[in-house]
Amino acid sequence: MKSILSLALFLFGATAVQAQSTSSASLDPNAPVMTFRMETVDFGTITQGDKVTREFVFTNTGKQPLIITEVKVTCGCTDPKFSKEPIAPGKTSTITVTFNSAGKMGMQSKPVTVVSNNRDGDVVLHLKGEVKAAPAAGAEAAPKQTAQNGSDAAKPAPAQTTPATATPAAKPKTTTTAKPSGAAAANKKATPAASKKKVVKSAQTTTPSPKQ
């Protein structure tokens, strides 16, 4: 029993070593190598319905031109753009990915698989971030209306002005002299006549009679 177990372990080890040797021998030292600055890009926090675009920058650090044949995504909300032109050794290029958050909510992580003649095979990139719900239209309008009402209430009511009416100038008072009554007037007219009679009578009494 022990001999069978030892034989199985020996065969397994030999197979693993052979596979590793074959893999190392198949790697072309002159093959193109795709080296990314960042394989995961975080777009932060956005509002549901927003679109964000980010770039994945890479350099061909190999010795042969690098050719991208395909970029795969798992969701129609992710749209990649790339150049199919050969990228010479030492040159830099980008893969642009646009994410549409319509209908999405919460934390997001979208894989983007780059298929090329890269020496190390396919490269899986990730675009991640958080999507928050858009504020309701009514909830947004209510504070504005409240604020407007508050400001209106704070304003003093405009004073009502009544158009001034011209006050007529006071008429000058006229003093009227009361006319004497008929009896008083008659007495007034009769007074000079009586005075004359008295004078005449007085004159008659004072005149001396002539001596005979």
Write the layout of secondary structure elements.
Elements: H1 2-26, E1 34-36, E2 40-47, E3 51-60, E4 68-73, E5 78-81, E6 92-100, E7 106-116, E8 123-132, H2 137-154, H3 182-206
Parallel strand pairs: 2-8
Antiparallel strand pairs: 1-3, 3-6, 4-7, 5-6, 7-8
What does this structure look like?
The protein has a domain at 28-132: Immunoglobulins (Immunoglobulin-like). The protein is an alpha+beta fold and 212 residues long. The protein is 32% helix and 29% strand. The chain has helices at residues 2-26, 137-154, 182-206; strands spanning 34-36, 40-47, 51-60, 68-73, 78-81, 92-100, 106-116, 123-132. Strand 7 (106-116) and strand 8 form a beta hairpin. The longest helix is centred in the N-terminal third of the chain and has 25 residues, at 2-26. The strands form 2 sheets. It has a 4-stranded antiparallel β-sheet, with no helix packed on it. Residues 19-25, 183-187 and 189-207 have low confidence and may be disordered.
How much of the residues is beta strand, in percent? Answer: 25-35%
In CATH terms, what is the fold-level topology of the domain at 28-132? Answer: Immunoglobulin-like
Helix content: 25-40%
Low-confidence parts lasting 5 or more residues at pLDDT below 50? Answer: 19-25, 183-187, 189-207
Number of H/I helices = 3
The appropriate CATH architecture of the domain at 28-132 is Sandwich
**How large, in whole angstroms, is the Cα Rg?**
62 Å
* CATH superfamily heading of the domain at 28-132: Immunoglobulins
Mean pLDDT across the residues is: 75
Q: In which order are the strands of the major sheet placed?
A: 1-3-6-5
Largest sheet: 4 strands, antiparallel
